[in-house]
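Recall that a protein's primary structure is simply its ordered list of amino acids. Everything else, from secondary elements to tertiary packing, is in principle encoded there. The following example makes that idea concrete.
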Amino acid sequence: MAEIIIRECTTIEEFDTCIYLQREAFGLPDLEISPRRHFIVSRQAGGWTLGAFADSRMVGFVHHLAAVRPNNEVFGYSHVMAVARDYQNKGVGARLKWAQRAKAISEGREFIKWTWDPMQSRNAHFNLNRLGVSVHTYAENFYGVDYDLPGEHGLPSDRLFASWNLNSPRVSALGAGVPHAIEAEPVKKIAIPTEWSAVVKRDAGEAREMQLRVRTEFQNAFAEQLVCAGLERGDGESRYLLYRPNDLT
């Protein structure tokens, strides 16, 4: 594999490649894809896009928006990341996220936020175990209907919100390549299928019931002020790990 260089995207041609990479990685209709103007306007408003380049070819990107908390603190919102199919599972996504962290820190930021589908175990493992995010919030049908199902109206686009505290001991250790296990025992576990797409294809009704169960369990856990901070991976089933906040300090 060619050496990967991470740098900021600045040209119209590079932003157009971000569109092509979204189509390739996600298979989404154009209605669901961030367009060229979004990348250009975001850059003018304080955001940026980092691209991963193998020789002269752009093989991945992460798009970072400038956001504001209620206390007027500026933070980062990571809107979308995509990697070319032939470069997936080769560490490109991790390189992009750690580069995003470094750039955000250089701007004086301490926090980045994004979402992922709670039924996607690979994304959960990447975000929780490899990047060290924590989760406090579950959103129902965040983007509208997400999947086209035979004879169905689709599934709600439920999402978990990743909270990435860039200078926390856990994130700092993981960013330096040092393992940082959570010593406390989880208070609660929430099971999901390891291969969600297989469930969706096999039985739309089963998928809908499973999603509703996971939603309810997360909402109950967050109502108890628990924090999701890990994932146990299994062949058929994986489990989110939830902790008391004081056990994570």
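The chain has a mean pLDDT of 94. The helical segments are 12-26, 36-44, 92-106, 121-130, 169-175, 196-202, 204-223.
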